[in-house]
Amino acid sequence: MYTFSLAEAKAQLSKLIELVEGGEQVTITKRGKAVVKIVKSDPLRQQVPSLAEHRAGIRYLGEPAAEFIRKMRDSDRF
Fold first, then answer.
1. What is the DSSP string of 43-66?
2. What is the CATH code of the structural domain delimited by 2-38?
3. DSSP character for 11?
4. What does the function comment of this entry state (predicted)?
């Protein structure tokens, strides 16, 4: 972990970014107190397809549940 004062960070921003890209953590201080911690960001998440698209791609096998329940209700077995 590296620590830089605010003035040093302003002068060496490119160096700080290179350190962070390399996996290091950088802390920037103001008047001796830590005020900012720079860490490497997480990679972007892959976008998930919409629920509507997913539902449209589902193929149903057999009879719908409502019809099955209706048959069970109307039969002598229930």
1. PPPPPPPPHHHHHHT----SS-HH
2. 3.40.1620.10
3. H
4. Antitoxin component of a type II toxin-antitoxin (TA) system.
